[in-house]
Amino acid sequence: MTDTTDTTDERTRNDVAAARRDFLKGVGAAAAVGATGLGSAQDLTEMNALEVVDDPIGDYPYRDWEDLYREEWDWDGKARSTHSVNCTGSCSWQVYTRNGQVWREEQAGDYPRFDESLPDPNPRGCQKGACFTDYVNAEHRVTHPLRRTGERGEGKWERVSWDEALTEIAEEVVDAVEDEEYDAISGFTPIPAMSPVSFASGSRLVNLLGGVSHSFYDWYSDLPPGQPITWGTQTENAESADWYNADYIIAWGSNVNVTRIPDAKYFLEAGYDGAKRVGIFTDYSQTAIHCDEWIGPEPGSDTALALGMARTIVDEGLYDEEHLKEQTDMPLLVREDTGKFLRASEVPGLDVDADRPEKVFVMADADGGLRTAPGSLGERDGQHDASASIELDFDPELAVERTVDTDDGTVETRSVWLNLREELSAYTPERVHDLTGVGESTHRRIAREFADADRAKIIHGKGVNDWYHNDLGNRAIQLLVTLTGNLGRQGTGLDHYVGQEKIWTYNGWQRLSFPTGSVRGVPTTLWTYYHAGIMENTDPDTAARIRESIEKGWMPLYPSERDDGSRPDPRIMFVWRGNYFNQAKGNVAVEEELWPKLDLVVDVNFRMDSTALNSDIVLPTASHYEKHDLSETDMHTYVHPFTPAVEPLGESRTDWEIFRALAEKIQEVAEERDAGPVDDRQFDREIDLQSVHDDYVRDWETGEAGALAEDRAAAEFILENSEETNPSDSDERIEFGDIDEQPRRLLATGDHWTSDIEEGEAYAPWKDYVQDKEPWPTFTGRQQYYIDHDWFLELGEELPTHKEGPVLQEKAEYPLSYNTPHSRWSIHSTWRDDTKMLRLQRGEPTVYLNPDDAAERGIEDGDTVRVYNDLDSVEVQAKIYPSGEPGTARHFFSWERFQYPDRNNFNSLVPMYMKPTQLVQYPEDSGEHLHFFPNYWGPTGVNSDVRVEVEPVEEGTESVASGGVGSGGTAEGDADGSDRGPLGRVSDLLGGDDR
Which pLDDT tens digit goes with each residue over 931-967? Predict the structure, then answer.
């Protein structure tokens, strides 16, 4: 039996919500307003309706508030939980319950201190976490399975039973696997560290089905590609407590006070301890006001600024010569004829003790003799080999320019150091000023101060990653800590924090998520680009390189190409713990080209967000206060849990319960059909749907049947199978009961980290390489700033260099740069629709404009304006922002599509495009340095390099939804009178032609 529901009209669900709101009984209407803070404005302002009290002491009729005040601190139970959002915070909270309902929450204050000289880690939290209670009982909470009855996004649903929903999904899954299109089943969920059990719930089933797991860190442009390029490791950071150990800190595009609220105290207190803090932000941000000095470069000019600073350090001899000789590729010789590194295999008579001399590199010693560089990939056992060493037993020369007799004849060579100095020579103070707007003396002085500091650190933010040439920006900024030797010690390094990107308990999480060990991973940027129809509409050079990367197997694309040359469309998509549809770059193409290809979209969600509204089936999941899980972040070295403070609301189930039940239903359907095993075309395994549930709940490490039926057991599995919580060389271990009692500091580090957890020290990375002399996991075994891959050489990017981004819109037509930074009032789209958070801002999507730009366009604060470009338009409220640089429209991202009148959003103005250098494999034959691995290396989604114009919307003007730029055609139509449509406009922007 079903009942039809239209969520566009439904405002309340009394049948479900009443139970959760019973705790208000007896408190009274006035107390209800006080308890929730959500009384109407009329209730709060109609003071004239109150009775005059002559004797407030002896005769005071309004007593209900007293009961509320007294009883607010009474509770029946208390549970430890946290908030499963990708915010880096990973804050432990105490959740108080009363009459089976969440009554309030507060920050836990029991993180154990490991270093009394550092600021107290307690408490951790922010205003968003403090209002998560609102979400537990919110009107948009999904409380029962829903099946779409109208068009996707229309908001028309019917309530169905769990059995109906799971059966419909299972039938589609079994059909796909029997059709041998298991690689057309996709699973998208972001960052595992925020709730690894919930991440593993769907990933485990997708893996058993032979489906595809999507990357997320690169897709969100959170991944700094310069780090795997240079250091062979993805975002290895110090925990935030280490900021306090620094003498000099540059916050470079990281708005710490807004996006790192629980950790900002370390940045602020470092200043009280004497550290100088410099902020590099295009706007006078909320962090800039707390810095000792603020530098405001032109948007997108970070690379030029960093290279200008590097030139000062080099020209004035402020670099750490010993660090450069031992730890970097600067002494390595490069052939002038090919641009490639000189290999030991090319030099007759050179003594080489290596199995692969073609991957061993060459230096010159102080006497002019040629030497092999220790730790080169050719003498190591793969990318990571702790048994090798880069320690030198000779003194190499940095500045080398000489001929070398090779098997090819005599060739001219130069060291990377001389090549770098030649590149830096282009960044004169005058040119840097012209490119960045930063004063000639200012950037040089900051460079000197940074180099002179004993312990200098850069906190690097996502602002640099949003640009097309983000890899060049990363490499240039990294160069500053390398030149000065600020790596591998407390208080040094480049710390890049965007989301809870790196999970401590990696091995346990990986084994739980991907039990078969055979994983189909795909870069989401490439997958979306291809299946959203953008591939055929991009510029010819980029398109050719994308095809070459796919054909050579550098980047995987699924569904895979069949023997006849065809490639099926994606067929089924599961989304959980994320909001793919809302956050997609190029979302016009996603909506119009990719989404119609999908036969079934299933969203597992506790709230009706934009992805849920555009799905076919929505399954109600437990909220963060209703499940068991773990929470971790590289911002600190603790692990703490989710525990259920209350039962899941309505018919909600935990993520683990949902996917386990779906596995059970798939097995049931397969048994009814007598579906036989299907050979996996890529891996040496069979996909057996008749055992998929048994395999789901089985502990693959011990073989115990049914051991993982519950989510708490899954959490225990992660803790038991991870070095960080169950060290191999110790009897000490951390169990779930321990962290329920109190957050616990990790006991050790696994091999995916680069330093040990040390007693009494904040975690700081890179000690394995800098102090213990292990080879860096790069081609050269060193920090590698020269990349001799053919594509890098062809594009002139073998060294970090400043390049202008692609021209997507002409500045003359669209004079404003478009920027979409993170907001203080939400974590991605979570809390964007929360009433309390909306009250702390304008309450609706807003564009921030410099006063001069606003005045030029006749725009006043609070006006409704249209932000538009060749691609689309959005209507938002204008906010005058004197702290913003002229020439920029700053539209804080993550607003839900349904919060805009035309149902577009911040990404509707952003096309999707990729940089070819992020599609390579290096070395080209083996990829031991750069190879696709989800969230380690792959093409990033890009948000910036976009230009817009803003105009006021006059009262009575035709709605964007019914005409104009945002309605599918351009404002004046194409020159030939045709309506190009959104995808056609994407083609125009990317240089293609699909006419």
Answer: 999 999 999 988 889 999 999 998 755 544 333 333 3
Say if residues 575 and 216 touch (Cβ distance below 8 Å): no
**Which H helix or E strand runs over 562?**
none
Say what angle helices 711-720 and 655-673 make with each other, to 10 degrees: 110
C-alpha span between 738 and 740 (Å, rounded): 5
Cβ-count burial 319-339 (b if 16+ within 10 Å, e if not):
bbeebbbbbbbbbbbbbeeee
Cβ–Cβ < 8 Å for 673, 697: no
Q: Yes or no: say if 371 and 362 are a contact pair by the CB < 8 Å rule.
A: yes
Tens digits of residue pLDDT in 538-564 = 899 999 999 999 999 999 999 999 999
List strand residue ranges (DSSP E) for 627-762, in order.
629-631, 638-642, 678-679, 686-687, 744-745
Measured between its terminal Cα atoms, the distance across the chain in Å is: 49
Residue 563 neighbours by CB distance under 10 Å: 6
Contact call for residues 859 and 876 (beta carbons, < 8 A): no
Dihedral sign for Cα 30, 34, 35, 40, please.
positive
* pLDDT score, position 88: 84
Single-letter code of the amino acid located at 480:
L
Nearest to 568 by CA among 44, 953, 186, 117: 186
Q: Helix, strand, or coil here: 885?
A: coil
Max CA distance (Å), the chain: 107
Residues 427 and 813: beta-carbon distance below 8 Å: no
CA distance 328 to 453: 21
Q: Could you tell me if 817 and 282 are in contact, meaning their C-beta atoms sit under 8 angstroms apart? A: no
Alpha carbons within 13 angstroms on the beta-carbon side of residue 552 total 18
Q: At what angle do helices 711-720 and 506-513 cross, to 10 degrees?
A: 130
Instruction: Please check whether residue 192 is in contact with residue 199, taking contact to mean a CB–CB distance below 8 angstroms.
Output: yes
State the Cα angle at 222 between 216 and 224, rounded to 5°: 115
Task: Give the separation between CA 845 and CA 25, rounded to whole angstroms.
Answer: 36
pLDDT class of 17 with cuts at 50, 70, 90: very low
DSSP string, 276-331: EEEEE-SS--TTGGGSSEEE-PPTT-HHHHHHHHHHHHHHTT-S-HHHHHHHBSTT
Give the CA count within 13 Å in the CB-facing half-sphere of 708.
31
Which residues contact residue 741 at a Cβ distance below 8 angstroms, ignoring those fewer than 6 apart?
none
Residue 141: closest CA among 651, 645, 616, 577 = 651
- Selection from 793, 799, 886, 920 nearest residue 303 by Cα: 799
Q: What is the pLDDT confidence band of residue 248, given thresholds at 50, 70 and 90?
A: very high
pLDDT in tens, 275-312: 999 999 999 999 999 999 999 999 999 999 999 999 99
pLDDT at 916 over 50: yes
**Residue 571 backbone zone (phi > 0: left; psi -120 to 50: alpha; other: beta):** alpha
The angle subtended at Cα 785 by Cα 781 and Cα 791, nearest 5°, is 105
DSSP at 769: H
CB 146 within 8 A of CB 10: no
Q: Which structure tokens are listed for 769?
A: 């390489």
* Cross-strand partners of 210: none
Q: What are phi and psi of 859, to 5 degrees?
A: -105, 135
Measured in degrees and rounded to the nearest 5, phi and psi for residue 257 equal: -70, -15
d(CA 956, CA 976): 30
- pTM of this structure: 0.90
Cα distances (Å, whole numbers) of residue 635 to 121, 325, 435, 866: 11, 31, 34, 39
- Does residue 662 contact residue 645 with C-beta atoms inside 8 Å? no
